[in-house]
Design brief:
The chain is 66% helix and 0% strand. By secondary structure, the chain is an all-alpha fold. The protein starts with a helix and ends in an 8-residue tail after the last helix.
């Protein structure tokens, strides 16, 4: 009865063991190891690095990208609906209209809140 689950457990354990072996055994053998301090700094076209490598990122870019991903992924739900459009009838059509309306009102809401403006 548990034979199938045993196979899955063995597969998961082998996968986890492979990952641990790569991290603990192979990575110290393959990593860059030099005693010269000059070789450990970041290479910037032959120039000495100046300042910190951490640059503040404007949060507006992050919000815009996040909104794009949300609406893009939700719009992917339209493809399976279009494939079986004839089979689902009016109930499926109406439910997809509701889904599109929710997407549209979400877009209008984010637009009205100013999340799509680049300059404030």
């Amino acid at each position: 009865m548990l034979g199938q689950y045993g196979n899955i457990l063995i597969f998961v354990l082998l996968g986890a063991g492979f990952a641990v072996a790569n991290l603990l055994v192979l990575s110290p053998l393959l990593r860059f190891n030099s005693g010269d301090e000059r070789q450990k700094i970041a290479y910037e076209c032959g120039m000495e690095p100046i300042g910190t490598p951490y640059v503040p990122v404007n949060i507006e870019f992050y919000i815009f990208a996040l909104l794009f991903v949300i609406f893009d992924v939700e719009s992917l739900f339209l493809y399976p609906w279009a494939i079986i459009f004839k089979e689902i009838g009016w109930a499926g059509f109406n439910s997809m209209l509701v889904f599109i309306a929710v997407l549209f009102f979400g877009l209008v809401y984010t637009w009205r809140r100013g999340a799509l403006r680049w300059e404030r």
